[in-house]
């Protein structure tokens, strides 16, 4: 779990260093703006923004049982962040699989994308869809409920 926090913590540390440099240069406004930008990047890349990941096998078992879509994602992916943010609270209804933590999930993504680990890959009713539009995913959620 600690590994998931490395990038966000590095972003906060770098933001602190850059802001401190700007403060010493006499630009407190720029320092504050840069620090806030680094904090935002850290937040977006933190484990807080994504629902808790499950393993690919567990996600597939649950999806068969209740029909919920599965989202294969990885930390740092701007398209995954876009999907998560645009889905809002409804993102909690999806089953999220972090392909960097689950080799079976990475294999499923490669199988669906001609050997590439292209994410987000959303599996609905056994059919993979690579980088779908968030509105389409929201429609799938409403039809599976």
Automatic annotation (TrEMBL):
The keyword GTP-binding does not apply. Residues 71-127 form the Glutaredoxin domain. The chain crosses the membrane at residues 29-50. The lineage of its organism: Bacteria, Bacillati, Actinomycetota, Actinomycetes, Kitasatosporales. It comes from Streptomyces griseoluteus. This is Glutaredoxin domain-containing protein. Keywords: Membrane, Signal, Transmembrane, Transmembrane helix. The keyword Signal applies. Residues 1-19 form the signal peptide. Pfam families: Glutaredoxin. Gene3D superfamilies: Glutaredoxin (3.40.30.10).
């Amino acid at each position: 779990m600690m590994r998931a926090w490395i990038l966000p913590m590095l972003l906060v540390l770098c933001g602190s260093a850059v802001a401190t440099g700007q403060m010493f240069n006499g630009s407190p406004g720029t320092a504050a703006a840069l620090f806030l930008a680094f904090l935002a990047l850290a937040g977006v890349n933190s484990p807080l923004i994504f629902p808790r990941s499950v393993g690919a096998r567990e996600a597939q078992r649950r999806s068969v049982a209740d029909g919920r879509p599965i989202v294969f994602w990885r930390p740092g992916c701007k398209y995954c962040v876009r999907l998560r943010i645009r889905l809002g609270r409804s993102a909690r209804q999806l089953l999220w699989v972090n392909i960097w933590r689950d080799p079976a999930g990475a294999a499923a993504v490669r199988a669906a994308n001609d050997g590439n680990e292209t994410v987000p890959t959303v599996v609905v009713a056994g059919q993979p869809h690579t980088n779908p539009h968030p509105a389409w995913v929201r429609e799938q959620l409403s039809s599976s409920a």
